[in-house]
Amino acid sequence: QVQVVESGGGLVQAGGSLRLSCGASGSILSIKAMGWYRQAPGKQRELVTTITNGGSTNYADSVKGRFTISRDNAKNTVYLQMNSLKAEDTAVYYCNADVYRPGTVVGGNAFRYWGQGTQVTVSS
User: Fold this and answer.
1) pLDDT by residue (tens digit) across 23-78?
2) From the CB of residue 109, how many other CB atoms can be counted at a distance below 10 Å?
3) CA atoms of 115 and 68, how far apart (whole Å)
4) In this structure, is the dihedral angle defined by the CA atoms of residues 62, 65, 67 and 72, taken in order, positive or negative?
5) Which residues on neighbouring strands pair with residue 72, listed in sequence order?
6) Percentage, residues of the chain above pLDDT 90
7) Residues forming beta bridges with residue 6, ordered by sequence position
């Protein structure tokens, strides 16, 4: 099995910063990509950012210029540096990993695993 665990959430004032971490472990051959989503109360889960194993990144318009995703491939870990936080960034942040499991053939599918989420609260 594969476990995805997030950490680093908390309460911060508007304009402040937080750094989230997410590690994947278990039965992993390699990881295709990892990413962060968030879900605010009463809203649907939305994409925040993703990063591939090659380092290509993608960001939601709402966080461009404020959030930065980075990755340590050797540790199967990603980080989300969040600066200039706003009240509207308040949400549960979920990490996912698209994993190639042992035995996957070339061209095979990756499977997506999710963490339990970490709460980020920004006070205005």
Assistant:
1) 999 999 999 999 999 999 999 999 999 999 999 999 999 999 999 999 999 999 99
2) 11
3) 19
4) positive
5) 77
6) 94
7) 22
